[in-house]
Write a structure and sequence with these properties.
Number of helices: 10
Order of helices and strands: HHHHHHHHHH
CATH superfamily of the largest domain: Tetracycline Repressor, domain 2
Distance between the termini: 65 Å
Domain HTH tetR-type: 10-70
DNA-binding region: 33-52
Largest sheet: none
CATH architecture of the largest domain: Orthogonal Bundle
Strand content: under 5%
Pfam families: TetR_C_3, TetR_N
Protein name: Transcriptional regulator, TetR family
Shape: elongated
Radius of gyration: 20 Å
GO molecular function: DNA-binding transcription factor activity; transcription cis-regulatory region binding
């Protein structure tokens, strides 16, 4: 059994992962190097290799942390709650993730754009299982007439793309709105209005 890390070792591991997040989110897996990560972390490459034996090991550790955090808001969708409240809460949570964790969002986007070579088992496993579970919840709400009838999985796709845009395309947003413009307050209100109208049950 591996011994628990000391406080210094745990701190160095987190320093390496934080530096790797900067490098991977900017350069992608292929463009990143251990030398770049070590330089950003302020550690020597041999010191980095003491904690993580390869670039793949660092990347895998980051992605494992990311996927768990990324899935939490969807896990929190309560099938016994008010449908619109639950869905709007999910939209807001996903938008807040883009605001608070833009590097993580770009890391995930880069991985998907490369064909998910390091995350495919997790996507086809935990993520797919959760999506099946929550689309069944959405379908039940639709069948009960509580929200408009839409393809449930495509509703989730729309939420993901519209909220993650604000992290993955941050450079474009700042170029258009100004470097100091905070797009998130208006974005939150806009997306809530958009999805409420989309999900409203027609009287006809």
């Amino acid at each position: 059994m591996r011994r628990p890390q000391t406080r210094i070792q745990a701190k160095n591991s987190e320093t390496i992962l934080d530096a790797a997040l900067d490098v991977f989110s900017a350069a992608g897996f292929r463009g990143a190097t251990l030398d770049q990560i070590a330089d950003v972390a302020g550690l020597s490459k041999p010191n980095l290799l003491y904690y993580f034996p390869s670039k793949e090991a660092v990347h895998t550790a980051l992605l494992s942390q990311l996927l768990d955090t990324w899935l939490d808001p969807l896990r929190a969708m309560d099938p016994n709650g008010d449908p619109l409240t639950q869905i709007m809460g999910y939209v807001r949570a996903k938008l807040n993730f883009s605001r608070d964790f833009p590097r993580q969002s770009r890391l995930f986007a880069n991985e998907i754009l490369q064909g998910a070579p390091h995350m495919r088992p997790a996507i086809e496993g935990d993520l797919k299982t959760l999506v099946i579970e929550k689309t069944a919840v959405l379908q039940t709400w639709m069948d009960q007439g509580k929200i408009a009838r839409l393809p449930p999985v495509h509703l989730l796709f729309s939420i993901w793309s519209l909220t993650q845009h604000y992290a993955d395309f941050d450079c474009q947003i700042r170029a258009l709105l100004g470097p100091d413009h905070d797009a998130f307050p208006v974005a939150g209100d806009y997306l809530e209005t958009l999805f409420r109208k989309l999900l409203q049950v027609s009287d006809t």
